[in-house]
Amino acid sequence: ASGPQSPDLASQKLQLGNMEIDFERYVVRVAGRLIPLTYFQFTCLRLLARRRETVVFREELCRALWGDYTHDQNLRLNSQLSALRHRLRDSEPWSIRTVHQRGYILTADA
């Protein structure tokens, strides 16, 4: 008898509007077009996508990327998120928003 698909298999791909994220292959497509991302950018997107509509704190993102949270890593995070936003600019309706002095959120535009 075939049971329900395991959560691990079910969560390998995520479709958010016109953006598809393949967590297993580290591939992102927007409107069918392959979007090249660095490892750091993909890691940020993975955290934000898995907790979409929820604020992910800056400290958490830095620790996931570099294992620590320092001023320098905070600046590097700003750079990575800026590049990620630019690369995902055509994704609809989802976008990455800054939550002042807290972190970031992947949210659907109203």
| Number of separate helices | 4
Ranges with pLDDT <50 over ≥5 residues? 1-9
Overall pLDDT: 88
Instruction: Give the strand line-up of the largest sheet.
Output: 1-2-3-4
Largest sheet: 4 strands, antiparallel
> Class by helix and strand content?
alpha+beta
Give a count of the beta strands, DSSP E runs of length 2 or more. 7
Q: Helix proportion of residues, in percent?
A: 25-40%
Content of β-strand: 25-35%
Summarize the helix and strand pattern as letters.
HEEEEHEHHEE
Q: Compute the separation of the termini in Å.
A: 43 Å
Radius of gyration: 14 Å
Shape label: globular
Outline of this structure?
The chain is built from four helices and seven strands.
Structure in words:
With 110 residues, the protein is of the alpha+beta class. Helices cover 38% and strands 25% of the residues. Strands 1-2-3-4 form a four-stranded antiparallel beta sheet, covered by helices on one side. Helix 2 crosses helix 4. The longest helix is centred in the last third of the chain and has 17 residues. The chain is globular.
Any key phrases for this structure?
110 residues; 25% strand
How is the topology of this model organized?
Elements: H1 7-10, E1 13-16, E2 19-22, E3 27-30, E4 33-34, H2 39-50, E5 56-57, H3 58-66, H4 71-87, E6 94-99, E7 103-108
Antiparallel strand pairs: 1-2, 2-3, 3-4, 5-7, 6-7
Helix pairs in contact: 2-4
